Amino acid sequence: MLRVFVALAVGLLLAVPVVPPVLAQDSVTSLPPPDAAAASSSEELAPPAPCGGQTITIARMQWPSAQLLAEIHARLIRANFGCAAEMVPGDLGATASSMGVNGQPAVAPELWITRVPEIWNGALKSQEVRQAGSTYAEPVFEGWFVPDYEVVAHPDLTKVEALKAYWRDFAAGGKKARFISCPPDWACAVINRNLIRANGLTDLFDVVEPANRFELDTLIAEAVSRKEPILFYYWQPNAVLAQFGFAPVDLGPFDKEAFACLGRVACADPKPSSFSPDPVIVALAQWVYLEAPEVAAYFQRAHMPFAEMNALLQNLNEPNATIENVADAFVAARGEVWQQWVGKPAGQ
């Protein structure tokens, strides 16, 4: 199991860096999309060509989750709106810049705008591109997790307050339990240390900071292979969380002021908070709202749940799996998810 876990984690590592201890939403600008209905003319004498006769170009970024989204959206747009859709190579900075200059590509399904805030804000000013909506159904990508088998034994372990009652389960006979954090040079290491203090767990949990990502995954894999209780930090979307079954720990509501302190080494009085939301968006060219309003409305509804993407990434680890055939399988089997995006009730 350990070899499988580590191979999976290394092979399907989301190629976007871990969130830094800044408030992501403070660094970017968002504009509401125009009214898609107002963009269509009622005076047309004949039905327009699908998507205004234009091809919907979709940025296919370098990391697996974005590649899956591009392939899934292309299939659904072709099948449900009769549009021509094709993939083009994508890159965070280059794609955002190009969309701001000439509205191409038409869609970037997974744009991490806090990684390229100046480019994104400049693109918005051109009025050639808009934020259609959030890529994922959940806004917070980082958190603490426990194995599903621990939640079966103690259902209230999904709340951070319960860790005080069950810490001995995580101690494995030692005087203190272990919390597996992230490498010390990652921003999340500072946040996790302060969260332990903020939640009154300092005397109950030792914070273990692995040297690197490989060691982090190894520590988790060793515990899971022995069915041991484990509390650890991780992020989504990620195949690991679907492969072995982990439940998030509710850290409470997000507190902007508290989180700003949690991100500082010298946080004198840390207060509880969840991790900061991160705006990961579907970027859409302005012309799509005008010439293909039904497609614009589709992307405003197309929010992928983490659990679905985690499972898709896990499926990529299967023998002979490709981005394309995993996308095909999602479209064939998960209509209950995507039918809401195309505006159909689930089951139709």
TrEMBL record:
Protein name: ABC-type glycine betaine transport system substrate-binding domain-containing protein
GO cellular component, one term: ATP-binding cassette (ABC) transporter complex
Gene Ontology molecular function: transmembrane transporter activity
Keyword Membrane found: no
Source organism per UniProt: Devosia nanyangense
Low complexity bias spans: 36-46
Annotated ranges, domain ABC-type glycine betaine transport system substrate-binding: 55-332
Signal sequence bounds: 1-24
Chain positions covered by the region annotation Disordered: 30-49
Pfam families referenced in this protein's UniProt entry, alphabetically: OpuAC
Record keywords: Signal
